[in-house]
Design goal:
single chain; mainly alpha
């Protein structure tokens, strides 16, 4: 009988140790879950802040894109004009255009041949062209 009591006592102690260790493990698990919840809340809060900042950046980017488009539209002819100016060279082209205008060339021909803008060609033709009789 002594042996039965000792085995039962040992089983009781083992059960108590097992229950206590389970309780300690459950407490550590609960503590870890709380820590993870706190981290998740912090991450969600940071994520919301990042979303707000992203919305601001997108808005600024959209406004900048619109400004760039307006600038491109406003100055779209500048590249073509620079090409024409580079093509015709220095004042030599104007001198030649004046000579052609004196010989009776119209502004269209001056524009085509010397790369003058329509306004420039018209001015050269009016100032230096042949006088038309009325």
């Amino acid at each position: 009988m002594n042996m039965n009591i000792d085995v039962t006592g040992a089983l009781g102690i083992a059960g108590a140790v097992l229950g206590l260790s389970s309780l300690v493990a459950a407490l550590f698990t609960m503590r870890a879950v709380r820590a993870w919840r706190a981290r998740c809340l912090a991450v969600e809060s940071n994520l919301a802040a990042v979303r707000r900042e992203l919305e601001v950046v997108a808005s600024v980017s959209l406004k900048a894109g619109r400004r760039v488009m307006r600038i491109e539209q406003a100055y779209s002819g500048v590249s073509e004009r620079v090409d024409r100016v580079e093509f015709r060279g220095a004042a030599k082209s104007f001198d030649q255009a004046i000579d052609f205008a004196r010989r009776g060339a119209d502004s269209g021909k001056l524009t085509q041949q010397f790369g003058l803008s329509p306004g420039e060609a018209d001015l050269v033709a009016r100032l230096h062209g042949r006088k038309q009789s009325a």
